[in-house]
Structures are given as structure tokens and as C-alpha cells.
Amino acid sequence: MANLPISFGCGLYDRMVPLFSGEVKPEGIDLTFTPVDNPADVFKAMLDGKFEASEMSCSDFLRRKIAGESAFVGIPAFPSRVFRHGMIVVRKEAGIDSPRQLEGKRVGVPHYPMTAAVWIRGLLQSDHGVDLTKVTWVQDAPFRPVAGDTSVARLQARFQIEDNTSGKALDTLIDEGGIDAFIGADVTEGMRANPRLRRLFPDFRAAEQDYYRRTKIFPIMHTVVIRKDVYERHPFVAKSLFDALTRSKDVARGRMRYMGTLRYMLPWMIAEIEEVDALFDGDPFVYGLEPNRHTLEALLGYLVDQSLSSGTISLDDAFVDVTT
């Protein structure tokens, strides 16, 4: 029997390279892997039906499942995870020396519901006691509610959210004083080089390591989803793709740990690997539902706390069982 053709869109992360090159092949599948550098582009392409499986914003996927949207099923492979303490930038003149001093200030964010912002607000609230309702959130992209979600009215009632109608980029606004701080998935080079700005957590590496030691949370940004119609016709695709993603990651992880040459442009990569191994006691990018249940439940809680979902969902209903 011929293999099933499946199109897959994803960022070309190191853990995806063996899958992209064809060195790792999903059983029973002829995979067409289209690398897409910009996550927003791959999300949109998947929503537009251009792929049968893809990387997807984890918070957006969960919000859709909670709202009853059934276009996708999730498999518990998480290609993107990022600590976010280093993605909070403040104007030096704004008088923000501690997280609580964000209250009463104007904070820019590319898009209020984006996963990175959900995690940042979550850690500010849960770890530092910031009252998120006392912050004015200025977003570049207008809020896009999920179809069927009933939380929008509550969101608008509880949180101060404004659209950036200035015509200026957020890095310009923070430089000029139109906003006092910024959170997001990236800190632009202009922000990093601007002498008027600084990170809220100057030693963000130490803050993130401490956060992980205390919470055991390495924030999940993206998951992998399959179109539900594809899964219902060919349910084997979920386990086959999950197993291939796992093997691809394991190959990349093994190569990174070869000490004879440096696979990446990091002069002290060997020391970095040893530090990571000591902190995580295993694979920091582990796949599977059970090892990540604690982190995913934290994300679900933040979605409720931030009025981005009208309820919650069992993770066992959100993700396909790939253990059998």
C-alpha cells in the first residue's frame, strides 16, 4: 500500500532538521515538510487549510478547543518553548524598578492573546503579585475573539486594552514615552541598543533558572496539530507523526552533544549543555502529555485568569493519545 501524503508546516528548528531532510521518516506517511520562519505565517496557513498538519500557537489551540471549535486535534509535541523574563522591557524614566510598579502603567504588546504575552502576564501575576487589571495594555493587532468564545465581554469589563492607533511601532512608542513598558515574543535590536530602555529583569537568565527550579515550568509556546478531518480518516497519522517528531528531536539532541566539533555558533556550548542537563535532569524539550501536564495546566489557568477563555478543558480531550 502506498504511503499517505501529508503536508506539514513548521519552523526549521534544530529538532526538526532530521525530519525535514528525510533522515527521519514517519511510518506510512510521505511527508512534505514546508519550513516557515515566521510562526504567525504558519499559523495563518494552517487556519486557511494550506497544511494537513503544522506547528500552532498553543494558547490559540487551547482557546479554540475550549470554545468548541473542532477543526484540529493536538498531538503532544512542543517544538517551541521559551522562558520569557527577558522579554519585558521598561523605560528607565518610567520609574519601574520592580514588577508591581507596572500597575498604573501603559504596557505595549503585539497582540494581547499571544502565547508569549499570556505566559508573561501569568508569571507577573502569580510570581510577583502584579494586578493585571491595573495595567493598560496597548496592542498592535486588534483582539480577535475565537468563534464561540463567550469570554470577550468579561475580558473587556475586567482589563484595560487599547489598540495602538498611533501609526507608530511599539519600539518607537516606548522610546517616545507613549508606553512605559513592552512585553512580547522578541525584544528588537533597537530596544536592546536603546540607552533609554532596560530589561525589567536585568539578569533574566538567573531569574528564569530560579523560576524553573521553583515551578518546574519551561513555558510551552507552540504545539503540533493535525486537521481533524485528516485525523478522522487516517487516525494512525497522529502516532506516526508524533513518533517521527520524537526521533527527529532525539537525533538533533545527540548531535548537539557531540563534543568533537561545535554544531552551533556558541563558543561555550559544551558548558551550556552541562548546565542545562544539571538544571533539567533530562530533556528540556520533552514531548508527551504526562511530562508536560503541569505546564499545560498552568497555561490553561492563565487563560482563565486573564479572561481569554470562558472555561477550561481536559488535556486528555485536547490532545490525541499517542501512547498506544
Characterization of this structure:
α4 (115-128) crosses α12. The protein has 324 residues and is an alpha/beta fold. It has helices at 17-21, 39-47, 58-66, 115-128, 152-158, 170-176, 189-193, 204-215, 228-233, 236-256, 269-280, 293-305, 315-318; strands spanning 4-10, 29-35, 53-57, 72-81, 88-91, 106-109, 136-139, 160-163, 181-183, 197-199, 220-227. The two termini are 22 Å apart. The chain is built from 13 helices and eleven strands. It folds into two domains: 4-82 and 219-318, 3-Layer(aba) Sandwich (D-Maltodextrin-Binding Protein, domain 2), CATH 3.40.190; 85-215, D-Maltodextrin-Binding Protein, domain 2.
Helix content: 25-40%
- So, the CATH homologous superfamily of the largest domain? Periplasmic binding protein-like II
Briefly note the structural class of the backbone.
alpha/beta
- Overall form: globular
Q: What's the total number of strands?
A: 11
Radius of gyration: 20 Å
Content of β-strand: 15-25%
Succession of helices and strands: EHEHEHEEEHEHEHEHEHEHHHHH
CATH class of the largest domain: Alpha Beta
Please state the second-level CATH architecture of the largest domain.
Answer: 3-Layer(aba) Sandwich
The number of helical runs is: 13
What's the N-to-C terminus distance? Answer: 22 Å
Order of strands in the sheet with most strands: 8-7-6-9-5-10
Largest sheet: 6 strands, mixed
- Please identify the oligomeric state: single chain
